[in-house]
Amino acid sequence: MARYTGPKFRLDRREGVNLFLKGTRSLGPKHPLEKKGVVPPGQHGVKGSRRKVSDYGLQLREKQKVKRIYGVLERQFRRYFREAVKGKGETGETLLQILETRLDNVVYRLGLAASRAQARQLTSHGHILVSDKKVNIPSYNVKVGDIISVSPKASEFGLVKENLKNVKVEEIPGWLERKGTVGKIVKLPTREDIGADVDEQLIVEFYSR
Fold first, then answer.
1. 83-125, pLDDT tens digit by residue?
2. Of 65, 2, 66, 12, nearest in space to 40 by CA
3. Which segment of 17-21, 79-83, 125-129, 178-182 scores lowest on mean pLDDT?
4. How far apart are CA 68 and CA 1, in angstroms?
5. What confidence category does residue 1 fall into, taking pLDDT thresholds of 50, 70 and 90?
6. Is CATH 1.10.1050.10 the classification given to domain 8-98+197-207?
7. Domain ranges of the chain
8. Which residues are within 8 A (CB) of 70 and not within 5 positions of it... i.e. 6 or more apart?
9. Which CATH code for domain 102-187?
10. Burial 143-177 (b: 16+ CB within 10 A, else e)
């Protein structure tokens, strides 16, 4: 299955929440949810969504929402869930931890990219270093102590400089540190660190059916 390449705001409307898929544009007054409220895409809009949603429907929507937030396809998401089941602690929290420690997400969280999609592009084009080694795999999972930085060439990119201005150091999650264009993984993220507006238990229930 190919990665979704259609309108990002359409996904926001489908899930009824801002998934922050378009960087600073997701924060502006022109966002569909700001202009129209929670109106699903499609010809029938609100009229087509008045039916009561089943438990399965709620679980499915939560899974789809998290997949879209992190830009992960179904097969990979299932694999992450299997890893989370085998891991220690709560399955849902472990799943979110695996997703948060993806390299593309870390680049985004450090403020080196305006969105996860942009972070994925920077990574796949070879502009991201992990402990001074080029890693061009967006799904690479970082470890505590890893140093994340942009290549000397990328540090001169206007978009990287703009991103650094837009995201202050104090806005970076507590499990990360950043100085200039260099970040560090100081600990694994806890559920409180992640702070995503998702109910991971619904995802656990979906895959446990």
1. 999 998 999 999 999 999 999 999 999 999 999 999 999 999 9
2. 12
3. 17-21
4. 14
5. very low
6. yes
7. 8-98+197-207, 102-187
8. 99, 102, 105, 116
9. 3.10.290.10
10. eeebebbbbeebbeeeebeebbeebeeeeebebbb
